Amino acid sequence: MQVYKFGGASVKDAEGVRNLARILKLNQPGQLLIVISAMGKTTNLLEALCNAYFSENGEATTLLQQAKDYHEHILHELFPDHKHPVYDLIANTFVEIEWILEEEPQDEFDYLYDQIVSVGELLSTRIVSTYLNSLGYINQWLDARNYISTDNNYRDAKVDWPKTENNIQADLPSMLTESTVITQGFIGSTSENFTTTLGREGSDFTAAIFASCLNAEAVTIWKDVPGVLNADPKWFDQTELIKELSYLDAIELTYYGATVIHPKTIKPLQNKNIPLIVRSFLKPETIGTVVHQNQGTLPIPSFIFKVNQVHIAILPKDFSFIVEDNLSHIFTLFHQHKVKINMMHNSAVSFSVSVDDDETKIPLLVTSLKERYDVSVEAGLELVTIRYYNQETINRVLIHKEIVLEVKNGYTCQMLIRTIG
Ligand code: ASP
Ligand code: MG
Question: Which residues line ligand 1 (CB under 6 A)?
Answer without folding.
Answer: 7-8, 37-38, 43, 120, 185-186, 200-203
